């Protein structure tokens, strides 16, 4: 880490979010370590209060959260005095960006189902995905919902596909792009 940079904690819910942030930062030429950024996996959104209590003094905060878990981030940030009655716009102003519905959904929408299926084929999982689609519980779902569910069915698959899908992006989903831009801008501001 560059000693002139103010450290930044990047708070994410889980490992796939961490991998997506690292992958997009690398694609954009942002060295997270040099930027003073440390990614902290919360183990779910409810872990934010504990992470905020344990944060070192003087660190800048940013994060990525799923829409359904936004309230945990909002309340925890308000509890440490970073706002009152925070809205989504208020969260963004603080550097916290909300995925609708979650990061996997954002990536599927950004790429489109055909491209995601192509990535699944490249990763050697197309046969498993086609078998998954034929399961009774999946038959009535849209292909996007099937893809979303498939990504979470095996340990480590979310992380594998977070990397592979982000690498395929022409344009990153808004919340992921905003977070990486926030870290880059924060690093640039402290370097001056």
From TrEMBL:
* Limits of the OLD protein-like TOPRIM domain: 9-51
Q: Its domain of life?
A: Bacteria
InterPro entries tied to this protein:
TOPRIM_OLD
Pfam families to which the protein is assigned, alphabetical? OLD-like_TOPRIM (PF20469)
Q: What is this protein called?
A: OLD protein-like TOPRIM domain-containing protein
């Amino acid at each position: 880490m560059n000693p002139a940079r103010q450290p930044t904690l990047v708070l994410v819910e889980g490992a796939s979010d961490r991998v997506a942030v690292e992958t997009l930062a690398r694609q954009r030429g942002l060295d997270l370590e040099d930027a003073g950024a440390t990614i902290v996996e919360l183990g779910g959104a409810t872990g934010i209060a504990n992470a905020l209590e344990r944060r070192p003094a003087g660190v800048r905060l940013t994060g990525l959260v799923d829409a359904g878990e936004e309230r945990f981030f909002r309340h925890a940030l308000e509890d440490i005095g970073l706002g009152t009655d925070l809205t989504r716009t208020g969260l963004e102003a603080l550097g916290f960006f909300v995925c609708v519905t979650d990061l996997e959904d954002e990536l599927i929408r950004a790429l489109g189902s055909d491209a995601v299926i192509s990535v699944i084929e490249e990763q050697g999982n197309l046969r498993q995905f086609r078998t998954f689609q034929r399961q009774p519980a999946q038959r009535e779902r849209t292909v996007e919902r099937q893809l979303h569910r498939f990504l979470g069915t095996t340990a480590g698959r979310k992380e594998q596909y977070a990397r592979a899908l982000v690498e395929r992006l022409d344009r990153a989903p808004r919340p992921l792009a905003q977070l990486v831009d926030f870290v880059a801008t924060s690093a640039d501001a402290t370097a001056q």
